[in-house]
Structures are given as structure tokens and as C-alpha cells.
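Dear all,

This email documents one entry for the complex benchmark we are building for the journal club exercise. For each entry we list the sequence lines for every component of the assembly. Then comes the predicted three-dimensional structure of the complex as a C-alpha cell string, followed by one or two observations. Please use this as the template for your own entries, and keep the labels exactly as they appear.
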Amino acid sequence: MEEIFDTAILGAGPAGICAAIYAARAGLKALWLDGKFVPGGQIQDAYRVDNYPGFPGISGIELGETLGNHAGKLGMTPLCETVTAIESPWEPVKAICTRKHRYLTRTVILASGATHRKLGIPGEEDFEGMGVSYCAACDGAFFRGRTVAVVGGGNVAAGDAVFLAGLCKKVYVVHRRDALRAEKGEQERLFACENVEMVWDSTAQKIIGQDQVTGLQVWNVKTGEERCLEVDGVFVAVGTRPQTKLAEDFLELDEAGYIPAGEDCVTHVPGIFAAGDIRGKNLRQVVTAMADGANAVYSAQRYLTGVTK
Ligand code: NAP
């Protein structure tokens, strides 16, 4: 008879890793899949994580590795396979399809996280990898001693700008308002960097270059003034977009594109749970994603044993 898993965990970011740890400890027969070889998800892109309790200032890569090793010690390692479809989601046994396999499972924990949002301006696509980057921790070193712009005003933009200020001659931070969304501590670190120039109330209009980026055209929304920043690189840090494509045929999304589910991660499809950055919630952090991973497994266990209240 074909093997049927108790649960399939899709994604190996903090939510998926935590779900894998809890599933292992609960003795569930779990399938764990991620499209990438290295666990960690978005934290792999963070040069520094300062609010994960117990690990102040840890690099994203090290945190991802530490979490992945914890799961590994419990016998859990994600299979590197990209999921292409979830079949028969409403049935008691669902199928998870990848290019190579079709797995059967009684529950699914969707923990596929989020991906970088783009600016959608001229030049962005043309110069991706040739001066346009979405990951300062990955690409920052290519811009040592040069001038770059970071676009965005959240934690990621502020953190990236601080990191780049340590490598680059000059860093412009282009933000569409006159106040950052980033936490106070991140803001203080940013404003203390002498080679950072804030470009307030400004939107990025066009990325300019020949073979490589040479400039970023910005527009001041208050004065209407246009300016071209002479930069060698543009780091885009304007937030993330949930990766919900696999679930869109059977799950309704909220207005912002996230999967509606409470803290128990229960969706309106029996046996399907949503954990981490794809779930509609107020605060998207490593710790809240990990809490989701634990809650999703707890809810899956209750579903598997027929507990409904
Ligand atoms: P974010 O907090 O959503 O901030 C996105 C920033 O980009 C905002 O300042 C926003 O401007 C700006 N923006 C959005 N669309 C734009 C556009 N089209 N043009 C120009 N600017 C635009 O995103 P994030 O900094 O990438 O962080 C993503 C999530 O990860 C957040 O929920 C964050 O809390 C979380 N995070 C967690 C940790 C951690 O757990 N340690 C670390 C970093 C980030 P406005 O401010 O005007 O809206």
C-alpha cells in the first residue's frame, strides 16, 4: 500500500523548521519539503537578527543553520523539492506533487513564507544581478568602497543600510515618507552612520545604467523635485509578498493576500494549516513564525485524532 504521511510541511523557514521539530517530537510521520537546499528561508538574507531571544546580534545565516541543525538532531532534514501542486485538498488524504514525486498526506502545513516585493520601475528587471539586488547580506560585498542606494523604510531597509554603510563609501536611503517604519533601535543604528544620507519623501522612479547600474532617479513627493543619485547599486527593501500560489485554488485570501487563519493556524479547509509569513496576522517576526509552526503541529495532531473543540 502507498505510504501516507501524517503531515506534509511545506517550507523550511522559521515556521517550517519549528513545525518539523514539533512534528518529530510528537512522533508524527512527517514529510518536509523546501525548494532550497539550505534551511532558514528569509532569515538567510538578514545580516543581523537582534530580536530573537537568546541570540542577540546573530547573523541570519548562522541562525538558519542553528535552527536547521536542531531539526536535524531530531532526524528532520527537508527534502529539496519544489512543490508544484496540492491535489484533493478537501479529501481526508491529500496529494503533494513535485516534479519527481506525488506524496500522500493526511494534513498539510503551509509554511512557504514570503518573497521580496519589487518596485516595478523601469530598469529594475533589466539590472537585476547587475547592480539591483534584494539581499544586502548576499550581494553587499560586491559594492565595497562604492556608492549604493537602499529603497524602503522598514526593518530590512534600515538593517541593510547599516550593513552596507560598513562596506560602502556612501549609502543613500530613499524612503517615500518622512519617518521610518523600522524599530527605534534599528533607526538609531542607522542615524549614527556618518556615510548614510537619508532621501526623505522620495520615490524611486527609474534605475539608470549601461551594462551596470550608474544611477537612481528619485522624485520628491512633497516638492516635485527630481534628482539623479549617482550610485553603483540599488538595494530594494520594500517588504515582502506571501507565497500563496499553491493554495489559491482552494483557499480564499484576505485583502492583503495572506491566508486567513487564527493563532491555531487552522484554515477553512479541513486538514490544511497556515503558518508563518503566509498567515494573516499583525506581527511578522522570526518568533511569531516559530510560534505558528508549533501551533500548526498541535492543531494537526488534534485534527488527526479527531479532536474538534
Ligand atoms: P516592511 O516592514 O513591510 O517595510 C517595507 C517598507 O518599504 C516600508 O517602509 C514601506 O513604506 C516601503 N515600501 C513598500 N512598498 C514600497 C514602494 N512601492 N515604494 C517605496 N517604498 C515602499 O518590510 P521589511 O522591512 O522587508 O520587513 C518585512 C517583514 O519582516 C516585516 O513584517 C518585518 O517586521 C519582518 N522582519 C522581521 C525581522 C525579525 O524577526 N528579526 C527582521 C526584519 C524584518 P511605508 O513605511 O511608507 O509603508
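Observations: The helical segments are 14-25, 60-73, 136-139, 155-165, 184-191, 286-304. The pocket of NAP is lined by residues 46, 49, 51, 119, 151-157, 176-177, 181, 203, 237-240, 284-286 (CB under 6 Å).
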